[in-house]
Amino acid sequence: MKMISSFTDNHRFLSNFYPCVIAYDGITYPSNEHYYVAMKTTDPVLRKKISEVTTAGKVKRFGRDMEIRADWEDVRLQVMLYGLRQKFSDPVLNKMLKDTGDAQLIEGNSWHDNFFGSCGCSSCGDVGDNHLGRLLMQVRSELC
Predict the structure, then answer these.
(1) Which among 102, 126, 101, 111 is positioned nearest to 15, based on CA atoms?
(2) Alpha-carbon distance 24 to 99, whole Å?
(3) Which of 65-69, 89-93, 108-112 has the lowest mean pLDDT?
(4) Is 11 strand, coil or helix?
(5) Which of 106, 73, 86 is nearest to 34 (CA)?
(6) Tens digits of per-residue pLDDT, 39-62?
């Protein structure tokens, strides 16, 4: 089976940092990362502020220090799935995702994210849960 194990170069579009339009509750986010971090709060003013952060990298760092809503652990996978469905409703991105065929999608990383990805460093050993890859494959199967 073919495998895509890095969301870089030709597969960068699979990354949550990739520019796209996610609309939710009257706010438009410039990447799935922006949307995901914004959903960590229920405060609409803070969500709007997050939508205006200039880069996905900055918004990810911002999200590390914010107060997280009480039900976050219960809803974060549903939040990610909604964002991915919105992202890949774009016709160009939709085709790009479909063009990955039946490849296994693994969000390989070196920053120790073993929930959404699989960190390949010597400490982590590449045994992550890969929830982002799994959700991407779910969305791809819904589109096909």
Answers:
(1) 111
(2) 27
(3) 108-112
(4) helix
(5) 86
(6) 999 999 999 999 999 999 999 999
